[in-house]
């Protein structure tokens, strides 16, 4: 497989992981501002993450073995690369498109055209901000190249070229200008915040719970492995890793459920639970935890041969049960006798019964 194809695979794979991790803060902001997270926003998040990773993979990868490359110089004379482009005497545009110097200039410009689009679409900023941010991003990339990835290598394995700064910033400006026709500036949204809990909101909340559990569990597993290898030399550590990898995120989720009545994902998408009586709030939260997240962590800790299939089946059941129930509250809320509401809607007298 070619280097370009591998770089594309790295960008898509790592970008998708970054997009999944960014789902939590993105959902938290969007549901508090507008009460919605349209599918288009999720696609934009994925595209921006993949593009951001592509900038790094195409400018820094592949990483050479130390001592296997010739140190590259630094090019600090402005417009030197542009000056190498020569208009062909014959052949016209085709000859120009085959010219390596022209292709280098054109690709450096095109590389940052999507950057200008994302600045306008995501940040809602115009040409000047796109150019300045493009210049800053390009400077970070070029400095990383010129320092051998900040000292990881003894010298630079790729050329630091000042022209790249100018061409990349130009690309960002062109991307911002080109996106003017398709991305309109929007004033304050006049649409009221939704009062009903939608199916999409519940699904996003469940997805955020899954991201939280996986991310915290992975961080714990890495920490245990680091301590075992570099600090404690604990010997057999697999059982301890599995125990902590599941119990730590469960403990964090349990604190929020028992203390506030909602999971991390429900907090992210701005949902709350209400009960019929303040005296039953504590037991209801226990039932919610035991019938909601409890089986997930129990199956994870059990490490059974069929545990993966059972876990997948339970998650599918949980997702399916949320569809027909009132306000899509799902199995755990039904069994606990809890109602699910948006956090910004509370009727008269509900304040004493709100879990969060």
Q: Can you walk me through this structure?
A:
This protein has 356 residues and is mostly helical. Helices cover 65% and strands 3% of the residues. It is built from 16 helices and four strands. The strands form two sheets. Strands 1-2 form a two-stranded parallel sheet. It has a two-stranded antiparallel ribbon with strand order 3-4. Helix 1 (3-33) packs antiparallel against helix 2 (39-60), helix 7 runs antiparallel to helix 9 and helix 14 runs antiparallel to helix 15.
Outline of this structure?
This protein is mainly alpha-helical. The chain has helices spanning 3-33, 39-60, 80-83, 92-97, 100-110, 113-122, 127-146, 148-151, 162-178, 199-232, 238-260, 264-268, 281-291, 294-302, 307-322, 330-336; strands at residues 74-75, 160-161, 271-274, 339-342.
Descriptors for this entry?
single chain, mainly alpha, two-stranded parallel sheet, two-stranded antiparallel sheet, 16 helices, 4 strands, 3% strand, globular, disordered C terminus
Secondary structure elements and pairings:
Blueprint: H1 3-33, H2 39-60, E1 74-75, H3 80-83, H4 92-97, H5 100-110, H6 113-122, H7 127-146, H8 148-151, E2 160-161, H9 162-178, H10 199-232, H11 238-260, H12 264-268, E3 271-274, H13 281-291, H14 294-302, H15 307-322, H16 330-336, E4 339-342
Parallel strand pairs: 1-2
Antiparallel strand pairs: 3-4
């Amino acid at each position: 497989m070619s280097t370009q194809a591998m770089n594309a695979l790295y960008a898509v794979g790592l970008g998708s992981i970054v997009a999944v991790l960014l789902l939590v803060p993105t959902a938290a902001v969007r549901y508090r501002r507008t009460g919605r997270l349209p599918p288009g926003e999720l696609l934009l998040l994925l595209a921006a993450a993949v593009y951001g990773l592509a900038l790094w993979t195409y400018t820094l990868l592949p990483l050479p073995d130390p001592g296997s490359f010739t140190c590259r110089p630094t090019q600090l004379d402005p417009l030197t690369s542009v000056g190498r482009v020569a208009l062909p005497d014959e052949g016209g545009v085709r000859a120009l498109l085959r010219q390596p110097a022209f292709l280098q200039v054109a690709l450096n410009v095109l590389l940052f055209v999507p950057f200008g689009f994302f600045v306008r679409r995501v940040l809602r900023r115009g040409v000047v901000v796109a150019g300045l941010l493009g210049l800053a991003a390009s400077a970070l990339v070029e400095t990383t190249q010129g320092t051998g990835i900040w000292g990881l290598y003894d010298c630079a394995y790729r050329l630091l070229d000042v022209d790249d700064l100018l061409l990349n910033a130009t690309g960002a400006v062109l991307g911002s200008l080109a996106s003017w026709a398709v991305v309109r500036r929007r004033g304050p949204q006049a649409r009221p915040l939704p009062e009903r809990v939608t199916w999409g909101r519940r699904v996003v909340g469940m997805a955020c719970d899954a991201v939280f559990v996986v991310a915290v569990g992975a961080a714990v597993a890495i920490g245990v492995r680091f301590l075992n290898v570099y600090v404690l030399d604990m010997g057999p550590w697999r059982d301890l890793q599995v125990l902590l990898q599941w119990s730590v995120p469960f403990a964090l989720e349990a604190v929020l459920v028992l203390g506030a009545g909602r999971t991390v994902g429900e907090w992210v998408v701005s949902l709350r639970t209400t009960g019929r009586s303040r005296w039953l709030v504590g037991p209801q939260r226990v039932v919610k935890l035991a019938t909601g997240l409890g089986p997930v962590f129990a199956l994870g800790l059990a490490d059974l041969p069929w545990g993966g299939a059972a876990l997948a089946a339970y998650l599918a059941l949980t997702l399916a049960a949320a569809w027909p129930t009132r306000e899509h509250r799902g199995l755990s809320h039904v069994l606990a006798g809890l109602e699910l509401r948006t956090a910004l809607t509370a009727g008269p007298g509900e304040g004493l019964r709100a879990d969060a």
